[in-house]
């Protein structure tokens, strides 16, 4: 069996391979497949990210986003990673940050650096589906990404630096609506530090007289 041809053919359909899928497709013992992939990894032709999951470097179109909903099916990109994509912050994090209902974990290899942080089922919403060339992934709406960020930083007892946010890319009504579904402490941060100060033009006439 010519594994170079196999991986080249697989690369036409996707940018990663799974050992269990190859085992079933080619009717091979999974240990044989893993040993073969290990040899190809030593040559830099594939890259193990997690048990059974390998980036296929015969395909040059890989993005870490291809794996976000493979490594954790119930997850979406959020926090600083979503905020920078939406233009709300400018400093790009070195990791691809996601939230998940599953076990939190970090995956770090030469080509991948993804961190999953756990969020409660009640807060698992507010995302949309997007496509890479070969796969699909979920990413938070900008308002939800900001709320996730406030919520998780407060849970860890960390400060929430809100000064440099580009708030013109947010919808104030949606932010208000979404904040009501978070704990009161998060809702208060949004109301006091964002809405009342960042969107003064949207205050009522009475609020403007009191300002």
Blueprint (SSEs and pairs):
Layout: H1 3-11, E1 16-18, H2 19-25, H3 30-42, E2 46-50, E3 53-56, H4 68-71, E4 75-77, H5 79-85, E5 96-100, E6 105-108, E7 113-118, E8 127-131, E9 136-140, H6 142-155, H7 172-179, H8 184-198, H9 205-210
Parallel strand pairs: 5-7
Antiparallel strand pairs: 1-3, 2-3, 4-5, 6-7, 8-9
Q: Give the N-to-C terminal Cα separation.
A: 76 Å
Number of strands: 9
- The backbone outline, from C-alpha atoms, is elongated
The third-level CATH topology of the largest domain is Beta Polymerase, domain 2
| Count of all domains | 2
What is the overall number of helices? 9
Nearest-angstrom radius of gyration? Answer: 21 Å
Low-pLDDT residue intervals, each spanning 5 or more residues: 203-211
CATH architecture of the largest domain: 2-Layer Sandwich
- Sheet-strand content, in percent, reads 15-25%
Roughly what is the average pLDDT, rounded to an integer? 90
Structural class label:
alpha+beta
Question: Can you characterise this structure?
Answer:
The chain is an alpha+beta fold and 211 residues long. The protein has 2 domains: 3-60, Winged helix-like DNA-binding domain superfamily/Winged helix DNA-binding domain (Arc Repressor Mutant, subunit A, Orthogonal Bundle); 65-202, 2-Layer Sandwich (Beta Polymerase, domain 2), CATH 3.30.460. It is 39% helix and 19% strand. The chain has helices at 3-11, 19-25, 30-42, 68-71, 79-85, 142-155, 172-179, 184-198, 205-210; strands spanning 16-18, 46-50, 53-56, 75-77, 96-100, 105-108, 113-118, 127-131, 136-140. It has a 4-stranded mixed β-sheet. A 3-stranded antiparallel β-sheet has the order 1-3-2. β6 and β7 form a beta hairpin. α2 crosses α3 (30-42), α5 (79-85) runs antiparallel to α6 (142-155) and α6 crosses α8 (184-198). It is elongated, with a radius of gyration of 21 Å.
